[in-house]
Amino acid sequence: MDDDGKDLTLTRRELLIAGAASVAVSALPASLYAQTPADAPPVVTKVSFEVNGQVRNLELDARTTLLDALREHLHLTGSKKGCDHGQCGACTVIAGDRRILSCLTLAVMHQGDRITTIEGLGTPDHLHPMQAAFIKHDGYQCGYCTPGQICSAVAMLGEIKAGIPSHATSDLIAPAQLTGPELRERMSGNICRCGAYSNIADAISEVAGSKG
Fold first, then answer.
1. How much is the pLDDT for 18?
2. What is the pLDDT of residue 33?
3. pTM of the model
4. Torsions phi, psi for 131 (to 5 deg)
5. Which of 207, 88, 210, 191 has the alpha carbon at shortest distance from 140?
6. 3-class DSSP state for residue 49?
7. Strand 114-116 relative to strand 44-51: parallel, antiparallel, unpaired?
8. Which of 28, 101, 130, 147 has the fewest CB atoms within 10 Å, counting from its CB?
């Protein structure tokens, strides 16, 4: 009963109808509430960076990721778009001497940077040692994650040489001292759905000069 003496008791049917209506309203797309017009023109900006030893100048929508700039604008399709959320590592490239997830960074953020993709590490006639080791140890099955795995592995060994620690590091180590737990920790951001992890570890250990 309310203050006016009216009966506010709801039937079960009325309660279910009211609940369904509230769910429907909450599920409306956010675009219905947006104040910015959906057809607002993109902001185009110029960006220049070095990719695989060559200076590349592009005019891009400022929202373009580095991965899309490489794949769609420079046609370097070795870097793969997997999850597009930075969780699988298939898009890993090397910026300077550090590995990055190119799907999570904007191209305009890399003005003047030096980017290396899998195409820039080696060619079929002149393979990078890591590429050759992956072939020797069969470090792939479908091969989709392989470019990201190789770029990550190359930069990872560089990180060790630079003395950059990991969560598995108690003391600074040399690449030749790369242990199994250390390798797995440092490569944990690269997922292989085919499960070729043991072969990948063997390939990286060979290049590092480690016994694993």
1. 67
2. 46
3. 0.79
4. -65, -45
5. 191
6. strand
7. parallel
8. 28
